[in-house]
Write a structure and sequence with these properties.
Elements (H helix, E strand, L loop, with lengths): L2 H17 L7 H9 L3 H25 L5 H21 L5 H20 L15 H22 L4 H11 L4 H24 L7 H21 L5 H22 L1 H6 L1
Length: 257
């Protein structure tokens, strides 16, 4: 493993621990461009890495009382359904096209972060609104899962706002809960890729995941003390550069379309 790949794994974990999402969107570019894995193998490998790192982070947040399991389980089941379907659908799309789509998603995520992304906590829903909010939450879950299966992202940058706005969770609980959902989603997406026979370098995967876990443990502690708004803007700038690089690398697909 190169030094660049090792640093990338630590950064992925740190961002996941601090923001509850975002770090996983870097995993595929690191695996594809810093490690040199083929696109489909990079996407498949990213899922257990993100899932293992998120599992450790979720356990840390749960011990702090920041994981709402009653919300995470139904939402996570919806994302699992979408992730498995998305990973199967990925078999019909070229690896380069998947990376191009990832670049677009990264760009959208960066813009959302610049614009504030996650709004203030909404007031608790009235009883008559709860079924509608639950239906919306499950719908978002399926959509996030499809995206996870297609391009290998954890989807935390979409999951956290959904939990804040539709489940009325405070930010710190939404972050912890999102990590539970990401763990479930990643497992389902990875199962879909394995069912299609995508090769996985298990030794490399475990070392990379261990470094990401180290990062997420540190990030979970840092997240309690650092200003979230400043961190999000700084990460958004970095994400813009990464999105530009991925889109430039995939320009042949974009121009052909």
């Amino acid at each position: 493993m190169t030094v660049l790949a090792a640093v990338g794994a630590l950064v992925i974990g740190l961002v996941l621990g601090v923001l509850g999402g975002g770090g996983s969107i870097l995993t595929v570019p690191v695996l594809a461009y810093a490690v040199g894995l083929p696109a489909k193998q990079a996407i498949a490998t990213s899922l257990p890495i993100v899932g293992l790192a998120s599992l450790v982070g979720a356990a840390s947040h749960w011990r702090q009382g920041n994981a709402a399991l009653a919300t995470a389980v139904p939402f996570g089941l919806a994302t699992m359904l979408g992730a498995y379907a998305g990973s199967r659908l990925a078999g019909l799309v070229s690896g380069v096209a998947q990376l191009a789509l990832l670049g677009v998603v990264m760009l959208v995520a960066a813009i959302a972060m610049f614009r504030g992304g996650i709004g203030p906590r909404q007031p608790a829903a009235a009883a008559s609104e709860r079924p509608t909010r639950l239906a919306l939450l499950l719908g978002v879950g399926v959509a996030v899962g499809l995206l996870t299966g297609l391009v290998g992202i954890g989807g935390g940058f979409l999951i956290v706002p959904a939990l804040v706005l539709l489940a009325s969770l405070p930010m710190h609980r939404a972050v912890g809960t999102s990590l539970v959902v990401i763990t479930m989603t990643s497992a389902a997406g990875f199962a879909g890729y394995l069912s299609q026979g995508v090769a996985v370098r298990w030794g490399f995967l475990l070392v990379f995941a261990a470094l990401a876990v180290t990062g997420i443990l540190a990030g979970s502690r840092m997240g309690q003390r650092l200003p979230q708004a400043t961190l999000k803007r700084a990460f958004a700038v970095f994400l813009l550069f990464m999105a530009a690089f991925v889109l430039w690398s995939s320009r042949a697909v974009l121009w052909a379309s």
